[in-house]
Specification:
It contains 7 helices and no strands. By secondary structure, the protein is an all-alpha fold. The protein has 2 domains: 78 residues, Serine Threonine Protein Phosphatase 5, Tetratricopeptide repeat, CATH 1.25.40; 59 residues, no CATH class. The protein is globular, with a radius of gyration of 15 Å. The N and C termini lie far apart (45 Å). 37% of the residues are buried.
């Protein structure tokens, strides 16, 4: 059921119906936490999706909180050098960049680059993009 709610949230999100997306992502989160507890990759994904919607709505403070929760769980579950952790850092970096906190954003993009380089190699699109984003934070 939780996966279905998440999928419905994804559809609403892609349609720009952010309030509906948040409603379904929250249902997904509630069920997932109840079933697997709070320290699970699926819970982190729910927080991530909620954060993405808040960012699209321009609610950067709530987006930041949600992405920080996702990063915390992903780091505990996967360790600090996992590409999913880098993905969370990338989302946080985008938020900090949007908030004009370019020093923080640049540092996070560079951390992403380090992880992506080890996992995917220096020429992978994720690695190249993280380097490009870091260079734009001046």
């Amino acid at each position: 059921m939780a996966a279905s709610y998440n999928n419905i949230g994804l559809v609403y999100d892609s349609q720009g119906k952010y309030e509906e997306a948040l409603e379904y992502y929250q249902k997904d989160l509630d069920i997932t936490v109840r079933l697997v507890g709070g320290d699970h990759p699926d819970v982190a994904t729910s927080f991530n999706n909620i954060g993405l919607v808040y960012r699209k709505k321009g609610d950067l403070e709530n987006a930041l909180v949600q992405h920080q929760k996702a990063l915390k769980i992903r780091t505990r579950v996967f360790g600090s050098d996992h590409p999913t952790v880098a993905d969370s850092k990338y989302n946080l970096a985008l938020l900090h960049k949007k908030r004009k906190e370019t020093d923080i954003a640049r540092q996070l993009f560079l951390e992403c680059e380090q992880i992506y380089t080890v996992v995917y190699g220096p020429d992978h699109r994720e690695t190249v993009d993280a380097v490009r984003q870091a260079s734009l934070c001046v």
